């Protein structure tokens, strides 16, 4: 019997974001075929998957000389074959490790966010990727639009790059007999409900959700999540006296809120390939999303949802109004989103492609 390949997955963030969820989804589903280890800052969200034998605690969002020494020892003691870096910070740490330990490196970008940087920062990052990006054995981009954005931004990809779409678990359709009207969060209201699931950070552009809600008082909006901008969002709600917006906070059972909603809304400024939209698609919710990198891969505009220019919230309002007034349209678009998720963005397909990638690295 062949020895299982030992894989070290690295994340420099402990937040419950898409990149971290993606990393643990891979680890949980591939542990039968590979020996999985983790390097991540102190983390409560996934503590059931972590123990003293498979886990090394590293610093939050920074490169530490002490961490590099400890990680190098960990790589040698666990006979790591492949290092998989998730995100930019992890990529920098992993590239140093590979220089010191000569291992194979898989690097998943999880979103290339140059739009939030100054011109000088962009140039520095492009130069950094041009030189140190050559260390990577394989670069993984999580969507076709992310790859196209990288190419247009002159980010070095080399020949060994691959697109592996993010994937989520296939869930029962919202409109199936089993699920319909069974949500535990059902408030009894007959009003149309729009839901968003996101971290409260600049990238998610939550203020636009509030601006949209302010213009559609007869529709209820729920935002599931938490983050550093929570107080700013609360202040906006109070200042504008918004009665149709509910801040749910961070929840483990997100699907309870998805099943109790009619439309999914994303106002992000940029994405890699958002798991939250894919999860909404997996139950058959129609999507209204900003037409930005990552979001634009999820649905077919006008068929399984609507894409709108991120600067044009009037268009987003029109799309939500159109869906809220027509149940048949919501069901038809939701069903097409449901089918598209299964065809392109299933967890099973994603796991299969990563397993093949790891096996090729081991050869």
What's a concise summary of this model?
The protein is an alpha/beta fold and 363 residues long.
Kindly identify the CATH topology of the largest domain.
Rossmann fold
Please tell me the CATH architecture of the largest domain by its name.
3-Layer(aba) Sandwich
Strand content: 15-25%
Rg calc = 21 Å
Query: What helical percentage do the residues reach?
Result: 40-55%
Strand order of the largest sheet: 3-2-1-4-5-6-7
Number of strands: 13
Give average pLDDT, whole number.
93
- Summed up, the domain count is 2
- Low-confidence runs (pLDDT<50, min 5 residues)? 180-185
In whole angstroms, how far apart are the ends? 15 Å
Shape: globular
CATH superfamily of the largest domain: Glycogen Phosphorylase B
CATH class wording of the largest domain: Alpha Beta
Description:
With 363 residues, the protein is of the alpha/beta class. The protein folds into two domains: 5-166 and 346-362, Rossmann fold, CATH 3.40.50; 193-344, Rossmann fold (3-Layer(aba) Sandwich). Helix content is 40%, strand content 17%. The chain is built from 13 helices and 13 strands. It has helices at residues 18-30, 65-77, 88-101, 119-132, 144-152, 206-215, 230-239, 254-259, 275-282, 295-298, 313-324, 327-344, 347-362, and strands at 5-10, 34-40, 55-57, 82-86, 104-108, 138-141, 161-163, 193-197, 220-224, 245-249, 263-266, 287-290, 305-308. The strands form two sheets. The protein has a seven-stranded parallel sheet, with helices on both faces. β1, α1 (18-30) and β2 (34-40) form a beta-alpha-beta unit. α2 packs across α3 (88-101), α6 packs across α11 and α9 (275-282) packs across α12. The protein is globular, with a radius of gyration of 21 Å. The two termini are 15 Å apart.
């Amino acid at each position: 019997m062949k020895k299982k390949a030992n894989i070290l997955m690295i994340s420099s963030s402990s937040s419950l974001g898409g990149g971290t969820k993606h990393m643990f989804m891979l680890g949980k589903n591939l542990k039968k075929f590979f020996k999985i280890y983790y390097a991540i800052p102190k983390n409560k969200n996934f503590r059931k998957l972590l123990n003293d034998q498979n886990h090394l605690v590293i610093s939050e969002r920074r490169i530490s000389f002490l961490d590099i020494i400890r990680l190098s020892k960990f790589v040698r003691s666990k006979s790591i074959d492949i290092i998989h870096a998730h995100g930019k910070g992890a990529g920098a740490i992993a590239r140093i490790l590979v220089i010191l330990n000569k291992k194979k490196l898989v690097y998943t970008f999880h979103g290339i966010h140059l739009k939030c940087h100054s011109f000088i920062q962009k140039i520095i990052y492009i130069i950094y990727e041009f030189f140190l990006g050559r260390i990577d054995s394989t670069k993984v981009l999580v969507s076709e639009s992310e790859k196209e954005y990288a190419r247009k931004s002159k980010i070095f990809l080399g020949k060994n790059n691959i697109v592996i779409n993010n994937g989520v678990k296939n869930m029962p359709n919202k409109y199936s007999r089993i699920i319909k009207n069974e949500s535990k969060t059902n408030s009894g209201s007959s009003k149309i409900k729009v839901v968003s699931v996101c971290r409260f950070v600049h990238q998610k552009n939550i203020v636009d959700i509030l601006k949209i809600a302010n213009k559609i008082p007869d529709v209820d909006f729920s935002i599931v999540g938490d983050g550093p901008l929570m107080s700013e969002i609360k202040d906006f709600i109070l200042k504008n006296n918004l009665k149709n917006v509910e801040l749910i906070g961070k929840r483990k059972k997100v699907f309870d809120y998805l099943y109790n909603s009619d439309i999914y809304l994303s106002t992000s400024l940029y994405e890699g390939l958002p798991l939250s939209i894919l999860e909404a698609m997996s139950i058959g919710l129609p999507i209204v999303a900003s037409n930005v990198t990552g979001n634009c891969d999820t649905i077919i505009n006008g068929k399984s949802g609507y894409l709108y220019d991120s600067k044009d919230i009037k268009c987003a309002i029109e799309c939500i109004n159109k869906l809220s007034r027509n149940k048949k349209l919501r069901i038809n678009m939701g069903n097409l989103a449901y089918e598209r998720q299964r065809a392109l963005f299933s967890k099973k397909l994603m796991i299969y492609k990563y397993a093949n990638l790891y096996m090729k690295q081991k050869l």
